[in-house]
Amino acid sequence: MIAYKDIVFFVTDRPYIIIETEKKERIHIQASMSRIVKCLPSCFCMCSQSAIINLSYVNAYENDQHTFRIYLRNGCIINASRRYHTILKTQIVAFKKMMMNRT
Q: What's the pLDDT score for residue 66?
């Protein structure tokens, strides 16, 4: 069992999904991304068909002409697809505002 708060991201490595935790552990499971995304709380966001990130681990993001990059607190960089980057950017900003209002 892994607590949601400890999961940094999910990525596909067909036929497996890799779960990376805050402690840099990598856990392989057999599941589909669509099945996983349905079970996750709102702090998770899909950034491509092959990656889901935990918004609480987003350190920064960068949007250049061709790529939308998400920099995570654990040092990983995840690229968002064009299909998801607008939604992702909106969700990152909304999540950060929500977290600031909690403190």
A: 79
Q: What are phi and psi of 60, to 5 degrees?
A: -165, 170
Return the higher-pLDDT residue of 56 and 99: 56
**Would you state the pLDDT for residue 64?**
82
Alpha helices in 1-103 (DSSP H): 33-39, 82-102
Domains and CATH numbers, the chain: 4-102 (2.40.50.1020)
The pLDDT assigned to 40 comes to 95
Strand, coil or helix: what is 26?
Answer: strand
pTM of this prediction? 0.91
Q: What are phi and psi of 76, to 5 degrees?
A: -75, 150
Q: Is the peptide bond before 15 cis (omega within 30 degrees of 0)?
A: yes
- Structural contact between residues 41 and 24, judged by C-beta atoms closer than 8 angstroms: no
Q: What is the DSSP letter of 81?
A: P
C-alpha 50/C-alpha 12 separation (Å) is: 5
